[in-house]
Known about the structure:
- The structure is a single chain.
- This protein is of the alpha/beta class.
- The protein has 14 helices and 16 strands.
- The strands form four sheets. It has an eight-stranded parallel β-sheet with strand order 9-8-7-16-15-14-13-12. A four-stranded mixed β-sheet has the order 1-3-2-6, covered by helices on one side.
- Strand 13, helix 8 and strand 14 (334-336) form a beta-alpha-beta unit.
Amino acid sequence: MKHNVLSRGFVPKKFYPRGALFEPGLEDEKLYIERILIKEYSRHDVGNLERQGKSEAYTIQVSKDGHALIENASPLGALHALETFAQLFFAHSSSSGSYTPYAPLVINDNSAFEHRGLNLDIARNWISPADVMRTIEAMAASKLNKLHLHATDAQSWPIEIPALPELAMKGAYSHEQIWHTEDLEAVQLHGVYYGVEVFVEIDLPGHTTSIGNAYPHLITAKDVLWPEYALEPPSGQLRLNSSEVPPFLESLLQDLLTRTSRYSSLFHLGGDELNLNAYLLDPTVRSSSHQVLQPLVQAFINHIISIAATHDLTVIMWEEMVLDWNLTLPSNVVVQTWRGSGDDALGTILNRGYKTIFGSNAYWYLDCGHGYFIDPDPLNPDSPIRSPYLDYCSPYKNWRHMYAYDPVVDIPHSQRHLILGGEVHLWGELTDTVNLDGMLWPRVSAAAEVMWSNPGKKPDESTTRRLADMRERLVMKGVGAGVVQMEWCLRYEGGCRL
């Protein structure tokens, strides 16, 4: 803990006017915190994050004589408390020591939502295990506790599956761009140490073209012109009525879930953006009729849920499986909403009695506002890709807009217990290992505060200063977080209000 405080503090000079005396003098009388007493009121295995006590509450007390006490109800509460404790300290500009201007103090803290997550796409562009470990450490600083790895997609399959070795060997962009089994385990274990549960999404049955690089007979609408058969290139989806698909899924998921369930009780099966036209080309279906396809989709999803159940996993899926396909699902399934606030997806899911996770693309899509990845076709005078080349979910979601997101404002209190929490999303079309940090931080920290302390608050100058403080601490951790505020505004509090 001493190393944690000393190595992560920063000199907060940019938060004060030039020439201001903001630090204790080196000759001032010093009072040292020599130890921290931690009292935990329940004992659980920290390696089993989901099955331990739900409470993440903690109390920190620092007395005027330097005695520090942390009280918590679970290991996660202790981790959060120690993180908060470290953030009370600043580095001194003239010495190697650290100090806190806040003691004596009492902090009573708890989370508003149990699921506070980041959905990170590691399939469309290469994101390394080291990048994800750095991201986990930054997440812990903001008290996020769920990392949702969108692990595979149409474009690449970077995840090694020993039972099906050709999936990654032929489906990844290259042999150097594969997450091997030891990589995934190391990332999940790293999450355990930082209080972040890492779980995997294998998007099914859509977004599966990359499977066809190794198993082309399982995929329909592969190697055709994509716009009619997919939202993104390349097109291709798992066949819905093939006798060869179920045993493939058994091999895939039994291999993967046996390993990931050691560290997480969650599995995300995807289920979004299923293209109906693709099944006109499926020799086992030859129809794009919703009426024909619906029972096949129901059977497909039922099969995946049954496999996950053998590993005692809670299944998460995207909203389309309920809202577009009207599937009947077990009551313990969690439905994740994502489409813009205008269609009331969250309310509709709750009315059907399902637990849910929020994260609207109108507020919490970090990739929005960076433009399309699709190029205009010079031979197509009617190309929709034209100036000003805005992507579908523009504009850019700045941190204030993200902080102002209030998904529960219209939800009756009688249904709010079904809302587990939320996730902020980074889809990877225009993100790789080089620009990852700046795409995430500090905006993710703004969303994290919403999920920890409750939505419905408007950002003000105090929010700006808190987030700017967090940004400096992330930079000290080696995270390339973007700027929150112009330095003059931070130095002269009140000077940038309007």
